[in-house]
């Protein structure tokens, strides 16, 4: 199964709206898809949740007003406000759905490696070179 583009009706259902401006919703959905594709290409199956989240934020609050007071009128907008954007959580979700991100381990040891030294050894005084006799209490001497 592959990513299916959400529709304006999907965005209306997501936002709980009875009516929606279809042309505006389609534009925001397409722009949200473009933003998501800048993080992960191709989009994974569950990416429609992130697309709808980003498009929904821009649809209901296009100027990103953080608070509003009606009586002597006061509005505060964060710096760089407005527009469509992906949150850090959105980006992390996209990467996770695509199977990227998270911790992993890489073992750089070759499969044919052995625990012995790779240089030539002198076998004159013992199996591992001179001074390799074991004396109790002293160890290898």
Structure description:
- Helix content is 34%, strand content 7%.
- It has 141 residues and is mainly alpha-helical.
- It has a two-stranded antiparallel sheet. A two-stranded antiparallel sheet has the order 3-4.
Offer a few descriptive terms.
single chain; 141 residues; mainly alpha; two-stranded antiparallel ribbon; two-stranded antiparallel sheet
Write a concise synopsis of the structure shown.
This protein is mostly helical and 141 residues long. It is 34% helix and 7% strand.
**Average residue pLDDT:** 80
User: How many β strands by DSSP?
Assistant: 4
| Percentage of residues in DSSP E strands | 5-15%
Shape descriptor: elongated
Helix content: 25-40%
Largest sheet: 2 strands, antiparallel
Q: How is this fold's topology laid out?
A:
Blueprint: H1 8-15, H2 22-37, H3 47-60, E1 67-69, E2 74-76, H4 88-97, E3 134-135, E4 139-140
Antiparallel strand pairs: 1-2, 3-4
Helix pairs in contact: 1-2, 1-3, 2-3, 3-4
């Amino acid at each position: 199964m592959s990513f299916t583009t959400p529709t304006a009706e999907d965005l209306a259902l997501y936002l709980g709206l009875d009516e929606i401006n279809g042309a505006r919703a389609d534009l925001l959905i397409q722009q949200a898809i473009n933003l998501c594709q800048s993080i992960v290409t191709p989009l994974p199956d569950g990416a429609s949740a992130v697309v709808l989240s980003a498009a929904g934020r821009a649809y209901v609050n296009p100027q990103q007003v953080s608070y509003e007071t009606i009586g002597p009128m006061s509005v505060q907008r964060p710096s760089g406000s407005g527009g469509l954007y992906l949150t850090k959580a959105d980006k992390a979700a996209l990467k996770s759905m695509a199977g990227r991100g998270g911790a992993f381990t890489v073992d750089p040891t070759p499969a044919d490696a052995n625990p012995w030294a790779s240089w030539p050894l002198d076998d004159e005084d013992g199996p591992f070179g001179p001074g390799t006799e074991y004396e109790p209490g002293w160890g290898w001497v």
